[in-house]
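User: quick one, fold this
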Amino acid sequence: MTDKADHSRRNFLYVAAGGLGAVAAGATAVPFVGSMFPAADTLAASKTEYDVSTVVEGQLVVIQWQGKPVFVVNRTADMLNRVKGHDDLLKDPMSQAIDAVQAEWMDTDEKRIYRAIKPEILIVVASCTHLGCIPLFKPTSGREDWGDSVPENWAGGWHCPCHGSFYDLSARVVNGSPAPQNLHVMPYKYKTDSVVLIG
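Assistant:
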């Protein structure tokens, strides 16, 4: 009788100690695993909300996203007309060199050409894809306004002052520019008719 009682007590102690050990391991692991996820303030900084209705037609504004400058342009009907008709001047006219995140919303030819969910509102990272300088916005076309360095038949867009890269009004890089790619677009979506969530 005593041996059986001792054996039962030993089994109970083993089970209880094992259970307590499992609880202790879980209590240690949960905060450790939780520490691997980004903090709430970091997650908040990775997204930017902006009301594009505050940008008047023809205007460019610069906002911040993840510490980077971002161009937001409200393109006029004239600017949108000048986006097309010069594919032969561009390195990547159909925006093929894009990552999978961008491809989620760049799902039509129109979105690839205008590089925007809504054609009039262009949102791109304000950093030349050559060495990261901030290109200057030059929305008018032709050499009269910008000199002989401008490519012939250039319809306006951006010019990088550091090494001379040119981009069109959809921020697509012009042939002969040192920049290898179009200005980058980032993942974004419309939360309302005018408020975008970037990131």
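User: anything notable?
Assistant: The two ends are 70 Å apart (CA to CA).
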